[in-house]
Amino acid sequence: MSLFVNSAQELTYQHISEYLRSSSLFKDTMQAATDAPTFNLLYQPSTLIEVEVLPWEIHPWQDAELAVVKASSHITIGRTMDAEVIQFLLAENSKMRFGAFQLDEAGQVLFVHSILGGENMDLLELESCILSVAAIAATYEDILAAKFNGQRLVERPLVEI
């Protein structure tokens, strides 16, 4: 069974793999998943970033195979979100130039940024996407800890990947 839905997704995955394996920022911490077109990265020293290569199946161009690169990092892990925190993060979304806070299936907050993949994917844009996610995750972990009673919303142990 193939990991890929279309050729654009496969091409994007290959470009990202080559980039990450040669990048001085990520080559030492990058791990490729074996069961999905996904990479896990550890950035300075405890921000875990997931980079997924997804098919873009519903889009405005007829007969085009497209892919999207989605980078994300959890801001909260193992804490129930209350309305005050969620309202704050939704308001903060209006300040974001790229990306947004979202909830995952378990109700945990993550920051997500996506770019278009494919043969014209720009590697500087990819690197900016990944680094932006890392910076916002680390920054908002601190902001939330300061704003909500000094309580850290993320218990980020050093993760070996």
Notable characteristics:
alpha+beta; 6 strands; six-stranded antiparallel sheet; 161 residues; 32% helix
Question: Summed up, what is this model?
Answer:
This protein is of the alpha+beta class. The chain has helices at residues 7-22, 83-93, 123-147; strands at residues 31-32, 38-43, 47-56, 66-74, 100-103, 109-116. Helices cover 32% and strands 24% of the residues.
- Tell me the number of strands: 6
In one word, what is the shape?
globular
Series of secondary-structure elements, N-terminal to C-terminal: HEEEEHEEH
Largest sheet: 6 strands, antiparallel
Structural category: alpha+beta
The count of helical stretches stands at 3
Ends apart, CA distance between termini:
25 Å
Major beta sheet, strand line-up? 1-2-3-4-6-5
Relative strand content: 15-25%
Q: Helicity, in percent? A: 25-40%
> On the 0-100 scale, what is the average pLDDT?
86
Low-confidence stretches are 150-161
Radius of gyration: 16 Å
Description of the structure:
This protein has 161 residues and is of the alpha+beta class. Helices cover 32% and strands 24% of the residues. The protein is built from three helices and six strands; from the N terminus they run αββββαββα. The chain has helices spanning 7-22, 83-93, 123-147; strands at residues 31-32, 38-43, 47-56, 66-74, 100-103, 109-116. Strands 1-2-3-4-6-5 form a six-stranded antiparallel β-sheet.
